[in-house]
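Pasting as-is:
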Amino acid sequence: MQFDDPAGLSRVCTERLGDKAGRQFAAMARRGFQLVRPAESIQATGLCRLGGPALLDPETRWPEQSGVPLSLHAVLDTDALAAWLGDELPIRPGLLNFFYLDPDLSYEQYRKLDMFDSGVCRVIPADPARAVETAAPEPARSYPAVPVHAVEVTMLPDCWDVEDEDVEFDRDQHWGAASLILGGMGDLDGNTAGSHCAFGWPDTSHTLKVSSRDAEGPAVHLLQLAEDTELGWGWGDAGTLYFMIPIKALATGDFRKAVAQVLCC
């Protein structure tokens, strides 16, 4: 769920969920962006873009999985996003390159690869002052470069990413926190489905969680990429690709801990 006005978000939550649960749910809000193609009067945000060549430090090698190069799907310019994110971006990693295993291989070659291995995705930071455009080696796919504008929004989690201890609810009326959120916020839920988003919360449109948790709390959402026919990518039936990172790993800049997950119908 996303809102242009944080004050409106709090009001809607308390009106629909009650004072206590509403305030608890509103407190889970995170700042994020919807990534859209620029219009005539709207410029791209920094170096943010979908597809195109990677922007890597000169000494950085193109990432591979079992000898197969990954494909570059997006670049985020965190310097251009930092002012809105504030404390939700505890470091300034510069550019973030998002890679995923999407090789242009025959089925026999593809089926030998482990799509559940952590190496199928990679998030690689780069210094904007040193980064150079790096073309994808074959057989990685190379998508057209599409600059994007980052629209500032405040996001609430999908109901399936809310745990029972996150909000107070009547256990005689609801089987869990997801039931409360789905019943009270249902017509607002999932309004980022089918779109490209950065930070904030992911939208799943599925009865599955995306945000894993550890002792530090929910994982941080880095990027959501929906099926895009213009760019020519997709993951199954209406599939969406999500990149997440543990909170502690983000705070220390350890993007080796980033993981990716695909959900589809």
